[in-house]
Write a structure and sequence with these properties.
342 residues, BirA Bifunctional Protein, domain 2, seven-stranded mixed sheet, 2 domains, two-stranded antiparallel sheet, alpha+beta
Length: 342
């Protein structure tokens, strides 16, 4: 005859306190378990009692499932934020009080991202918009919109990684200039363009094939070279928290005219010479210049009415200078001991 439900509930109460999670599943919820057998017995129940009998079976099933679920949740709540690294050196025979290496699972922000947030905050307070760069672009935005016509020899300076379908990994965030001019125009236009760049070149302590860059553009009526120097100097002094001397030296970029390399006095040695500035007292920091009329016109801006300036600085370089990092390759090595310093 059919089982007495009160007896089953008593068995369940005992099993909940004595059986493991796996044993409970096997005894009650498996294909050959108690619940399955009870459903098979349902066909022997008189029609007028089937509804009540089925309800009680489902109540028992829910009771078991809820108990198992609660056990899982309790285990998750009790799970610590740390775990032991069993591969760490540990000699149980040593008299020294050595403890196993503990891995912190809570994570932290990468130093590059920490510095990026600080820099973008400065520019936002200066009234600049922010437009993130892309990590894959086309020939027009990489070259043609920036006054690099097809066959121009200056393309070789920025020729980087290409995909089979003729897309390119940007060598600079200047690829966003045309989009920024059209998105934020008509002038005044003030925007910074952060993003990741890729160069096909050898790496050393101060050069990487992959790095972050921050491009800036400012376009309005009667904008001059002096406006550019004052803007960049103000931003750098706010970021490095130090008054700086600046100078510019000639450079060449197809998308600016005139062009310059922006150089600052070393913020660490006050021009007396140190390893950071290679004992010269000065640090060559970024390229800059007045936006070429062809670039303005390509972006839908009338170069007869408006002028502007642009600059591009490596975030990795700034981070290394600000934090005293001697080798920028460490920023991408994934070395936990290095990252924990920040």
């Amino acid at each position: 005859m059919l089982k007495d439900f009160s007896q089953i509930l008593k068995e369940i109460d005992d099993d909940i306190h004595t059986l493991s999670q796996v044993e409970l599943k096997q005894k009650y919820l498996s294909k050959s378990g108690v619940i399955s057998k009870m459903f098979k017995e349902l066909k022997e129940v008189p029609d007028k009692e089937k509804s009540e009998y089925g309800l009680k079976i489902n109540q028992i099933k829910t009771l078991i499932e809820d108990n198992i679920k609660n056990r899982v949740e309790e285990k998750l709540e009790d799970k610590p934020l740390f775990k032991i690294d069993p591969t760490a050196p540990f000699d149980i025979n040593s008299k020294k009080d050595k403890k196993p290496h503990i891995l912190d699972l809570r994570g932290s922000s990468h130093p590059l991202m920490q510095e990026l947030e600080k820099i973008l905050d400065i520019f936002q307070r200066m009234g600049f918009n922010i437009l993130e760069s892309r990590q894959l672009d086309d020939d027009f935005h990489m070259f043609e919109s920036l006054n690099f016509p097809k066959g121009h020899p200056a393309r070789d300076m920025y020729d980087t990684f290409w995909t089979d379908d003729n897309f390119v990994l940007p060598a600079h965030t200047s690829t966003m200039q045309n989009r920024a001019l059209r998105k934020f125009g008509p002038p005044p236009i003030r925007v910074v363009l952060p993003g990741r760049c890729f160069r096909n070149e050898a790496t050393d302590a101060s050069h990487e094939h992959t790095f972050y860059q921050i491009e800036g553009i400012y376009v309005d009526k009667d904008i001059s070279f002096a406006n550019m120097l004052a803007t960049i100097k103000s931003y750098l002094e706010e970021y490095l928290e130090k008054e700086l001397e600046i100078r510019v030296q000639p450079a060449y970029f197809p998308f600016t005219e005139p062009d310059a390399e922006f150089v600052i006095s070393c913020p660490f040695c006050n021009k007396s010479g140190c390893s950071t500035c290679h004992y010269s007292g000065w640090i060559e920091l970024m390229g800059c210049g007045m936006i070429h009329p062809n670039v303005l016109n390509s972006g839908g801006i009338d170069s007869e009415i408006y002028s502007g300036f642009a600059w591009g600085v490596g975030l990795d370089r700034l981070t290394a200078i600000k934090r005293g990092i001697t080798d920028i390759r460490k920023l991408r090595d994934g070395d936990i001991n290095f990252l924990r310093q920040f």
